[in-house]
Amino acid sequence: MEEKKHNLFRREGNNDLEICIEIPLVDVLTGCSLPIPILGGENLTLSFENTVVYLGYVKVIEGQGMPTLKNDGKRGDLHVKFLVDFPKELSDEQRQEAFRILENCC
Question: Is 89 exposed, middle or buried (0-12, 13-18, 19+ CB in 10 A)?
Answer without folding.
Answer: exposed
